[in-house]
Amino acid sequence: MPPKKTIAEPNVNVPNGDAAKGRDIFDQQCAACHAFEGDDKTASAPTLGGLIGRKAGLTQFPYSKSMKGAGFNWSEKHLFVFLKNPSKYVVGTKMAFAGLENEQERADLIAYLANN
């Protein structure tokens, strides 16, 4: 069996983000499904506390096969590209979110996520 393909660290520059603005974006765009704590087995989406550095698809949330096999650890760079278009970055993801086109909004959200 050939080795699994993993998603390599993107070669992008993530702008400096404002965590306070990121919190507003989180509240508007993410909080309906995501939380920072809770039971991943029963949640509608995986918890995001400690996301940076965590292996994609690792918690007890029932991730898609593609997310479980993505083979990367969440970094600011992976998040920056993923948040632009989740279903394009991890084809087959269960995340039903069109994405954030605006680079600064993504950077602000990442700054907030990195602090929680």
Automatic annotation (TrEMBL):
Localization of this protein: Mitochondrion intermembrane space
InterPro entries noted in UniProt: Cyt_c-like_dom, Cyt_c_1A/1B
Keyword line: Heme, Iron, Metal-binding
Major subcellular location class: mitochondrion
GO cellular component: mitochondrial intermembrane space
GO molecular-function terms, A-Z: electron transfer activity; heme binding; metal ion binding
Cytochrome c domain segment(s): 17-116
PANTHER family xref list: CYTOCHROME C
Family statement drawn from the similarity comment of this UniProt entry: Belongs to the cytochrome c family.
Protein name in UniProt: Cytochrome c domain-containing protein
Lineage start: Eukaryota, Sar, Alveolata, Ciliophora, Intramacronucleata
